[in-house]
């Protein structure tokens, strides 16, 4: 499945290196902040600086085809009320076919720069996201689609319009292939201590859960263990050797009639695996238009990169991706064509403590 629209270029034409330029101070062994139009910068990184298949994680928060001009002033950002002294942060004026091809061209370049173990997260909204999903299926392959993540961005709204209030946007998560970096994302969860009513000889609170789960299998989890098979219509949750290890470690409780159950201790409950609805609300006082929650980026970076990974944000904006990558010890590349964005990012890094101060190069794209 793919979208058909006017002036859609072939991937080969998009990859032609017609706009290779020069980056004034680029060093692939350092963090890099780049002032330039991202399509040209990406072509240059690929074809002059040999960064093909080099980036483990890409996060982008591109324009949403809103037909708005985003401005920034002294200690304020707004699309509704503006001062004559405000500066334009960026224009989001492309719509329709022109917008879709703008996104597609860059996604093709992002695919080329992404490593074989890499992931890309694209932030968009409910108005345009379903079109971008089809484009990403085309560029990265539908088999490499991992999640459509709902992000709760705000508190409930009470606008006077005939529609449901909009509290969410979306993040589309794709990978380059099957063998991608993945570190389980654990969400903090406040467990009710009353759900752990039992106490062992060491005073630890616990509960028990069945050792079997719904569904019959023909494999190792259907075999007989300790003279018993799983109940009809169910299978063991683990292979027999794992069940033996649990029992030898004292983690199985046997009832008076010989029914085994696994012990779950309250003090070992650190959280639950994160699902595909995330509540990372936008900052109340953003320093740049459409600035995203830093915890959102922290989660993405921890989950889909390693300490030796390079992180790329092709629409760097407020620089929150770069700042979180820096604090987590990753190398990073940020690209933006807005002079106001570059100022905000530089200012953020200049305000870091000495212990967090990044070693980064600032480059300007030149033809």
What does this structure look like?
The protein is of the alpha/beta class and 367 residues long. The chain is 23% helix and 28% strand. The chain has eight helices and 21 strands. It has helices at residues 11-15, 38-47, 96-113, 129-140, 240-248, 294-304, 320-327, 339-350; strands at residues 22-23, 31-35, 55-60, 68-73, 76-78, 87-92, 114-124, 145-152, 168-175, 186-187, 198-199, 205-210, 212-214, 234-236, 252-254, 260-265, 272-273, 277-279, 310-313, 331-336, 360-366. The strands form five sheets. The chain has a ten-stranded mixed β-sheet, sandwiched between helices. Strands 11-12-16-15 form a four-stranded antiparallel β-sheet. Strands 5-4-6 form a three-stranded antiparallel β-sheet.
The quaternary structure here is single chain
Number of strands: 21
Given helix and strand content, the structural type is alpha/beta
What's the helix-strand series?
Answer: HEEHEEEEHEHEEEEEEEHEEEEHEHEHE
Query: Between the first and last Cα atoms, what is the distance in angstroms?
Result: 37 Å
Could you name the ranges where pLDDT drops below 50 across 5 or more consecutive residues? none
Order of adjacent strands in the largest pleated sheet: 1-21-2-20-19-3-7-9-8-18
Biggest sheet layout = 10 strands, mixed
Mean pLDDT: 89
Q: What is the general shape?
A: elongated
Number of helices: 8
Evaluate the radius of gyration. 25 Å
Amount of helix: 10-25%
Report the β-strand fraction as a percent range: 25-35%
């Amino acid at each position: 499945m793919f979208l058909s629209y006017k002036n859609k270029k072939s991937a080969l034409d998009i990859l032609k290196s017609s706009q290779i330029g020069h980056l004034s101070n680029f060093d692939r062994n350092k963090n890099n902040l780049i002032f330039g139009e991202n399509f040209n910068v990406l072509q240059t990184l690929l074809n002059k600086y040999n960064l093909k298949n080099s980036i483990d994680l890409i996060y982008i928060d591109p324009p949403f085809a809103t037909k708005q001009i985003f401005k920034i002033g002294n200690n304020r950002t707004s699309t509704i009320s503006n001062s004559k002294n405000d500066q334009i942060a960026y224009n989001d004026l492309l719509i329709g076919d022109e917008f879709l091809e703008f996104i597609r061209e860059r996604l093709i370049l992002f695919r080329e720069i992404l490593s074989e173990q890499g992931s890309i997260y694209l932030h968009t909204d409910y108005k345009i996201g379903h079109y971008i999903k089809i484009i990403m299926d085309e560029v990265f392959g539908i088999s490499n689609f991992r999640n459509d993540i709902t992000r709760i961005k705000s508190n409930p709204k009470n606008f006077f319009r005939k529609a449901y209030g909009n509290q969410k946007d979306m993040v589309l998560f794709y990978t380059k292939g099957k063998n991608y970096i993945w570190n389980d994302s654990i969400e903090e969860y406040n467990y009710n201590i009353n759900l752990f009513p039992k106490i062992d000889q060491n005073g630890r609170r616990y509960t028990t859960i069945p050792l079997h789960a719904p569904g019959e299998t023909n494999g190792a989890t259907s075999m007989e263990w300790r003279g018993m098979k799983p109940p009809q219509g169910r299978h063991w949750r683990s292979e027999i050797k794992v069940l033996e290890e649990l029992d030898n470690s004292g983690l199985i409780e046997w009832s008076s009639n010989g029914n085994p159950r696994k012990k779950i201790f309250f003090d070992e409950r650190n959280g639950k695996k994160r699902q595909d609805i995330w509540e990372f609300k936008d900052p109340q006082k953003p320093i740049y238009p459409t600035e995203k929650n830093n915890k959102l980026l922290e989660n993405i970076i921890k989950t889909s990169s390693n300490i030796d990974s390079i992180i790329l944000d092709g629409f760097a904006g407020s620089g929150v991706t770069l700042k979180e990558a820096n604090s987590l010890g990753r190398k990073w590349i940020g690209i933006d064509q807005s002079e106001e964005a570059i100022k905000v990012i530089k200012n953020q890094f200049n305000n870091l403590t000495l212990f967090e101060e990044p070693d980064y190069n600032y480059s300007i794209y030149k033809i």
